[in-house]
Please model this.
Amino acid sequence: MAEYDFLKGHGTENDFVLLPDHDGSVHGGLSEAAMADRVRALCDRRAGIGGDGVLRVVQEDGRWFMDYRNADGSLSEMCGNGIRVFARHLVDEGLADPAEPIPVGTRDGVKLVTVSGEQVTADMGRPRLLGETKVSVPGHAWVARHVDMGNPHAVAFVDALSDAGPLTDAPEHDPATYPAGVNVEFVVRRGERHVAMRVHERGSGETRSCGTGACAVMVAAAVADGARPADQPVSYRVDVPGGTLTVTWTPDDRVLLTGPAVVVARGRTAL
Model:
């Protein structure tokens, strides 16, 4: 099998394999089944490079496009930590100017990403609050808030993060509400506008962080606190196992995700 370039990066330890494929000639010609096989091989933490997902860096219609796939090879609409790592790569390689917001196409539309030193901010767009649902793990069940951040989330406030158990299996959820699966966040309060979370991501399992999940958690917490923005933006600190993210909800109903994003390795692989 021919070798090709890869990079490895993470945002608050939500880690990704990046595949620079600017003209689509390396990976773009693969069938969906073949690409899914490649993603699973790359993300394997023992036989591959290891990652929560794969970011293929490609251009479409003159704009950068993030072709994101979960570790199991399935497609995902959006990835908040991934898009920040994606933008970091573009800036590091001189492919984008950090002095200007960087437009990045995704399956959830075009997102603007701003790189400022070590911190990267992604405008994640408008949240959609879609009512209540239920999630459960063995021995526990909770009412959860259904929040769509381009991909679906169920946010459950719990007494202790350990109540969620090992999260080796996906939490039970309503398949009628989430026919394509769901990211489930378990949340505790740490202080005023400060929460901590664990997450099980569909297609990847429990991860050290989830950017869209942090946004969904912030929105659910702000609504519960009566802190939905009016004249001024509202910001929450969201602690994840891999670090800390800041999520800001603006009066014009945009959610901004800010945190570190780094590229840690590069090489060639034949996987």
